[in-house]
Amino acid sequence: MLPYGRQSVDDADVEAVVAALRSDWLTTGPAVDEFERAISTHVGGAAAVSVTSGTAALHVAYAAAGIGAGDEVVTTPLTFVATAAAAALHGATVVFADVEADTGNLDVEAARAAMTDRTRVVAAVDYAGLPASPDAFASLAHEHGALFLEDAAHSIGSLWDGRPVGSFADLTTLSFFPTKNLTTAEGGAVVTADAALERRARGFKNHGLVRERDRQRFPDEGPWHQEVHEFGLNYRLPDVLAALGTSQLRRLAAFRTRRAEIHARYDEGLRDLEGVLTPARRAQAEPAWHLYPLRVLDGRRRDVFEQLRADGIGVQVNYIPAYWHPVFADLGYRRGMCPNAEAYYEQEISLPLFPDLTDAQVDQVVDAVRRAVTGR
């Protein structure tokens, strides 16, 4: 089965991990600092706080934003459930706004209409790697006294108007799962240029521990002393995984180039095929494509999906609208709330896309899609 996503690990990656294993530090050591500096450089200078997963990054980011009961977070339903669930776990009310019909990204005007005086965060997702108009969302959030969170789990390496993802939002969250644009096996990061948000993020991901003497309430307790002023969790990324991430970052430009080549080859092979829509894009964007979201029309998505799986093509669907999950349905959310997102979901199939995919394999997928759609 040809998978829809797969990590690309080379000898340099292996050597970096081995060096970390042989060092004195397996966690909370210099490899973590080096990885965070490398991410910061890549995103244009904002601070990076490494964590154990993309979901942890969201949980930490919402904690840094200080959301809780009575606050609202406006976000997209066309995302993995963690974007919304991490806010709900802090006690916030999630308000889903609809997406753009062509890109699947959160619609700016739909988000505007969903905002109230209780909105604390607007969280947009860069679906498939295409940035979700981050300049417009930053302006929208700030006009209403809210923070803009960019869920960039799909889009590290992407540019918008020549600027890197991570340089627009108050808080940007990254994911380094194996199928993402670079990997630390499991891992993620929170990026922010705001020193107060960075401090809160670092505290929450490390149990809320306060070690700085000038911030402690009982600084004369002893040199061993540390305090917890606000509850936090252990989301520390180990040095071993951070070392892999630093090595992977050196290849990110090459990964982006190859993903773009694969994306363009799919476009060329499928754009004339009736019954499907190839992915939309925006002129301002240079995406590091994470997904190739093909849309199958006329209610034929499941038939085409099953035929491709039978042909050994490991397609996927991204994503069931978040409020369709029973956990949200049990809270009173109902189907039909965001028709564009539901229509997109009912058509979407993610074709295989990863840097080591060969041109011959791309052509194999194209041929299989054409057979499945046309029946010949």
UniProtKB/TrEMBL annotation:
It comes from the Bacteria. This is Aminotransferase class V-fold PLP-dependent enzyme. GO terms for molecular function: pyridoxal phosphate binding; transaminase activity. Its cofactor is pyridoxal 5'-phosphate. Keywords: Aminotransferase, Pyridoxal phosphate, Transferase. The modification N6-(pyridoxal phosphate)lysine is found at residue 180. Belongs to the DegT/DnrJ/EryC1 family. GO terms for biological process: polysaccharide biosynthetic process. SUPFAM superfamilies: PLP-dependent transferases (SSF53383). InterPro entries: DegT/StrS_aminotransferase, PyrdxlP-dep_Trfase, PyrdxlP-dep_Trfase_major, PyrdxlP-dep_Trfase_small. It holds the Pfam family DegT_DnrJ_EryC1. The active site is at 180 (proton acceptor). It comes from Cellulomonas triticagri. CDD domains: AHBA_syn (cd00616). PANTHER family: DTDP-4-AMINO-4,6-DIDEOXYGALACTOSE TRANSAMINASE (PTHR30244:SF34), TRANSAMINASE (PTHR30244).
